[in-house]
Design a protein that fits this description.
The structure holds two protein chains of two kinds. By secondary structure, chain A is mainly beta. Chain A is built from four helices and 40 strands. The longest helix of chain A is centred in the N-terminal third of the chain and has 30 residues. Chain A is globular, with a radius of gyration of 23 Å. Chain A starts with a helix and ends with a strand. The relative contact order of chain A is 0.13. By secondary structure, chain B is mainly alpha-helical. Chain B is 43% helix and 11% strand. Chain B has seven helices and seven strands, in the order αββββαααββααβα. In chain B, a hairpin with a 5-residue loop joins β2 and β3. The longest helix of chain B is centred in the middle third of the chain and has 19 residues. In chain B, 46% of the residues are buried. The chains are: A mainly beta, B mainly alpha. At the A-B interface, β31 and α4 of A face α2, α3, β6 and α5 of B.
């Protein structure tokens, strides 16, 4: 008896040791500022680098150090990784991965090109982008367009395991990166415009075996919610919370896909992400709050069990997916140091929450033109606590099917889409790439066919009226007071992920193709360089041989490449007003290139 | 039945001012209305076409085509059939392919390397509105309607409504 018990416990100890090892390795890689070991900069998604060789004083001298063509001419989202002397570069479909030797002028060490059925291409909404690979435990993780998750040997590119996460035949595809954490790889799914029921899944990092899956809607056993212990704004969600705000079986094709960025707090053993729009875009076909679409989720890393939810946009009427990143920070609020989560939602509101309890602390508009809501009810004793007050004029649900609701701000692509913001602990400010676009939206009845688009609304978009005429802003945000500190108007939506550094600078890219550096305190422009194509990728930085580099992928595309390629028109200008606004195609053409910058030697 | 509406149809055709047609040498037979029936318009050879009156009022199918296009097609082909960074301007395809060719590509799809048009043959949201989308894109390709949402439209006829209900199930 004694002996058996001893064996049993030592087995656990071994198991825990190997888990800790994989995780500690990645944490050490991320903590080394000379590397860029994860797409999001770190588990907190801060996209902040301690490197300061390039700083506000000298960034104006920046030069192109080297370039690399990816060989693919589609929208390039995400960024390369740097681990040691190796850079890992990914491409959009067909999802090639290159390992480049930084110690040998970027020589290609290995190249991996998966074979994927091209039938997946048209099932992907809005271009065949991919937001990059992840690294952990000597492996590179790629989540392909066709939803196959592949672990590659980081040294050789050899396939170590593969797992099929979804089924493109029913519209399930992937555009996102993965979250490697502890002994797991956590992945999401796309397909909200195809009636997919969203899910988040953990695979064993060493074997590729499925460990758990949490759906966004459905029975408690599917959504991994505990009626007593999972809370929504401090209140238990109760039984059947994933079905009781839906009519009939609509939840089975309910959307709530999970294609955004994921963050994590290892001390709390929680990870965070948001769910997308409910399907269809026609709200009349899905009465109810449609839980848990449009929701911030905090789940246990090991079990997937939900600790808390917060539904930002109950019964969506505008396609305001809630998938944007959750940025974690430790800041003082009302005199108390708290663990915070800050989220810039598509719906135009920036939320500051307590990430441990799920308490809502701040919810304010981060673009003054946002008009569909007058704001969120912040009174915990109110019946409508936590709900946004919807303005009837802009409610596509209240106006009904076959009615064109006009002048809604923001447009469906949101005040911000997936393009991630950065946070500087030095300035305690968030640097946010935004859209400044409004829309008309007309919902109508659609029927569901598996694997076919399931949209049910027509919309037209145009630059925010009565503003600077551009379609974007790059802003600095104070998440404690809920205020914009400064705002830079941009001709086009800013579709590039930002980078903040200890050198008091913030980098971002523009759709025309500029890499820009601005002062972290004031937003003053310090540097710009026009790369070969429009930028929808994320800025990253690393150090090699004592020199700091800044890298960015160019390659216009994504939602921005579709909506803006031919320019937008403003229906309020009346009939015949064509080309009143700049077309992106006047500024840039397709591309696929990495540009790496450094100071002169 | 169709011939009885001929005179009315010709009047409507005369109202179409053919804006911006100069750049393209297009045979008027591919768009000119020769017949109409229950709110639908046809060319001399019976191909569906658009009808636009002098004050800009479009026929129901053109308006409906605008709506359906911007639900089913624009996520790849861009607003108003103008094309995107990775899919062609289908406002031209409706002209270049002709009705049968357009029909064939939408129903069966086609593939050219990494450029893939899916098949919509089983999708009622497309198939029940194929004529609508075709006449809308033909009107766009000829610049007979401007970009954006048509401001004025004919009412939906009872026959179109009944056909739609029967098709959508």
């Amino acid at each position: 008896m004694m002996k058996k018990l001893k064996l049993f416990t030592s087995g656990i100890a071994l198991c825990a040791a190997s888990m800790a090892f994989a995780n500690d390795d990645l944490i050490a890689q991320m903590d080394n500022p000379s590397q860029w070991a994860i797409q999001t900069g770190d588990y907190k998604n801060q996209r902040y680098s301690q490197l300061d060789q390039i700083n506000a004083e000298n960034v104006g001298d920046l030069q192109v150090a080297w370039t690399f063509s990816t060989g693919v001419l589609r929208g390039h989202e995400g960024s390369p990784l740097v681990i040691g002397d190796v850079m890992y570069v990914h491409t959009p479909f067909p999802n090639i991965v290159y390992a480049l030797d930084l110690a040998n002028e970027g020589k290609i060490i290995w190249k991996y090109e998966p074979k994927q059925d091209p039938d997946v291409i048209p099932v992907m909404c809005c271009d065949t982008v991919n937001r990059g690979v992840a690294y952990a435990d000597g492996k590179i993780f790629l989540h392909q367009a066709d939803t196959k998750v592949v672990a590659l040997n980081a040294e050789t590119g050899a396939v170590e395991w593969e797992a099929q996460n979804g089924d493109p035949a029913i519209g399930e595809t992937n555009t996102a990166t993965v979250l490697p954490i502890k002994d797991k790889v956590i992945v999401g799914i796309s397909g909200g415009e195809f009636g997919v029921r969203g899910h988040t899944t953990a695979y064993d990092m060493n074997t590729g075996e499925l460990v758990w899956r949490a759906y966004s809607m459905g029975p408690d056993s599917d959504i991994l919610a505990d009626p007593e212990n999972t809370t929504h704004l401090g209140t238990p969600v109760g039984a059947d919370s994933g079905t009781n705000t839906w009519e009939g079986d609509q939840w089975m094709i309910g959307g709530g896909t999970t294609w955004g960025w994921y963050s994590a707090d290892l001390d709390e053993n929680l990870f965070y992400y948001g769910t997308g729009n409910p399907s269809t875009w026609n709200p009349a076909q899905r009465p109810g709050d449609n839980r848990w679409s449009m929701t911030v989720m905090a789940r246990d890393i090991d079990t997937g069990m939900a600790k808390w939810f917060y539904q930002m946009t109950p019964h969506d009427e505008w396609d305001y997916d809630g998938v944007n990143e959750m940025i974690l920070s430790e800041q003082e609020i009302d005199g108390e140091e708290r663990k915070l989560l800050t989220h810039f939602d598509r719906n135009g509101l920036a939320y500051t929450m307590d990430r441990v309890s799920g308490e809502l602390l701040v919810a304010e508009k981060y673009d003054p033109v946002v008009n569909w809501t007058t704001g969120v009810d912040m009174d915990p004793n109110s019946e409508t606590y936590g709900r946004p007050a919807v303005v009837a004029q802009y409610s596509t649900a209240q106006n009904g099917e076959d009615v064109n609701t006009t002048g809604i701000c923001p447009a469906a692509l949101g005040t911000k889409d997936q393009q991630p913001a950065a946070y500087s602990p030095k300035t305690e400010m968030f640097y946010v790439p935004t859209n400044h676009v409004c829309m008309d939206y007309e919902p109508f009845r659609v029927s569901y066919t598996a694997g076919q688009p399931y949209v049910g609304a027509t919309l037209s978009m145009y630059p925010a009226p009565d503003s600077h005429g551009g379609m974007g802003n790059f802003i600095a945000w104070d998440n404690i007071n809920g205020e914009i500190k400064w705002s830079i108007p941009e001709k086009f939506s800013v579709w590039s992920g930002a980078l903040a550094t200890a050198g008091d600078i913030v980098f971002y890219g523009t759709l025309e193709g500029h890499l820009k550096a601005v002062h972290a305190d004031t937003g003053e422009e310090l540097y710009r360089f026009k790369t070969p194509s429009g930028i929808i990728g994320n800025v990253m930085t690393y150090e090699s041989d004592g020199r700091q580099y800044v890298g960015i992928l160019s390659g216009v595309g994504g939602w921005a490449g579709i909506g803006l390629a031919a320019g937008l028109t403003n229906p309020n200008d009346g009939l015949g007003a064509v080309g009143g606004y700049a077309a992106l195609s006047d500024y840039t053409a397709l591309g696929g290139q990495l540009t790496v910058f450094a100071l002169p030697n | 039945m169709k011939t009885t509406h001929c005179i009315l149809a010709l009047c409507l055709a005369g109202g179409f001012a053919a804006p911006a047609m100069a750049e393209k040498a297009v045979d008027p037979a591919i768009y000119e209305v020769a017949e109409s029936e229950d709110g639908r318009y046809y060319t001399e050879d019976g191909t569906p076409t658009f009808s636009i009156t002098e004050d800009g009022t479009v026929d129901w199918l053109t308006f409906s085509g605008f709506r359906r296009y911007h639900a089913e097609c624009h996520v790849c082909h861009g607003p108003d059939g103008e094309g995107s960074t990775y899919a062609p301007a289908v406002k031209n395809s409706a002209i270049d392919l002709g009705y049968d060719g357009f029909f064939d590509v939408v129903v069966n799809g086609r593939e050219n390397g990494n450029s893939v048009m899916p098949h919509f043959g089983e999708n009622r949201n497309v198939m029940c509105y194929l004529d609508d989308i075709y006449v809308y894109l033909k009107a766009r390709g000829l610049d007979a309607v401007p970009r954006g949402r048509p401001a004025k439209k004919e009412a939906k006829s009872d026959v179109i409504r009944e056909d739609e209900d029967a098709c959508m199930g």
